[in-house]
UniProtKB/TrEMBL annotation:
The keyword NADP does not apply. The keyword Repeat applies. It comes from Thermococcus cleftensis (strain DSM 27260 / KACC 17922 / CL1). Signal peptide: none annotated. Gene3D superfamilies: 1.50.10.20. Keywords: Repeat. This is Prenyltransferase alpha-alpha toroid domain-containing protein. Residues 14-79, 134-284 form the Prenyltransferase alpha-alpha toroid domain. It comes from the Archaea. GO terms for molecular function: catalytic activity.
């Protein structure tokens, strides 16, 4: 058992977690969070790679997974999914494979041409990807494969991101945890140093709850804002106010099949939720 898996196993059922992931790997090298379906996809495959990487475990038959991700990079593929495939390839030691297909991204996302929202397609958070979300994923993926934006491209992206500045965070009608993190991460990845935002702390729930919310002074907590807030605090060099309570919150989200749901209410497991839960645990346990 890997050391990271052992550490996290202090808080959750690690054996059922590993079974949950392994049983959902398919012959084509991809993953599907519903084990009985052969509908492998980039999203689940990306998060399976992230889970194995976080736990310090070798991904099984990674050559097949490299081939699966490369096949998924097509002109009709949504830009967020292409970015996930690129980052996944980089984590599997195949950044050069991603580089061979970089031109496809620029048909959909080209800051010098004002293209921030061409063929956005599927989203992680909102049903249809927002231009800011697409920017976050593309910048993150390009950094992972070692592609450097030009000075003009960086400036164009920064100008675009700053259009979402809203009060002490980033958002459309008001600052949200997700968009604030995505904006700050993007700016920092491009070499800028935006001021720290108090938004993440304003969304922290201690007391009876644990976790974080999307906007301040609201309930209940969900896994998505908890993940992005934890990432935001880490990015800004800040510490959580009640790590034990946040760990309690995450522990309640593990389902009997080993995966994690998004809220304290009933819900199904998926790979995205499972990775985010593990990432929050990994961050919070540093402060015990």
């Amino acid at each position: 058992m890997g050391s990271k898996l052992y550490e996290i196993g202090r808080f959750i059922n690690a054996d059922s977690l590993i079974r949950y992931i392994e049983e959902r790997r398919h012959e084509d090298g991809g993953y599907c969070f519903v084990s009985v379906l052969d509908d492998t996809n980039v999203n689940d495959t990306y998060y399976a790679i992230k889970i194995y990487d976080l736990l310090g475990l070798e991904i099984p038959e990674k050559e097949r997974t490299v081939e699966f991700l490369e096949r998924a990079i097509q002109p009709q593929t949504a830009v967020v999914a292409i970015a996930m495939a690129f980052e996944g390839l980089a984590m599997l030691g195949a950044a050069d494979v991603a580089m061979e297909h970089i031109d496809i991204v620029f048909t959909k996302y080209n800051p010098l041409e004002g293209k921030f929202a061409v063929g956005l397609g599927g989203s992680e958070e909102f049903g249809t990807a927002t231009p800011l979300e697409a920017t976050y994923w593309v910048v993150k993926a390009f950094k992972a494969i070692g592609y450097g934006f030009s000075a003009d491209e960086r400036d164009a992206i920064r100008t675009f991101v700053m259009r979402f500045r809203n009060g002490n965070g980033y958002g459309v009608k008001g600052p949200t945890t997700t968009m604030t993190y995505q904006a700050i991460h993007t700016l920092r990845a491009l070499g800028y140093r935006p001021p720290k935002s108090p938004h993440f702390r304003n969304c922290e729930l201690c007391g009876d709850w644990g976790g974080f919310t999307e906007v301040p002074y609201s309930l209940p907590p969900y896994l998505e804002p908890t993940f992005y807030a934890a990432r935001g605090l880490e990015l800004q060099g800040e510490t959580p106010g009640c790590p034990r309570r946040h760990i309690w919150f995450i522990r309640q989200l593990q389902n009997p099949n080993g995966g994690f749901r998004r809220s304290l209410e009933l819900g199904i497991s998926n790979f995205q939720n499972t990775y985010r839960a593990l990432a929050v645990l990994d961050f919070m346990k540093r402060y015990l």
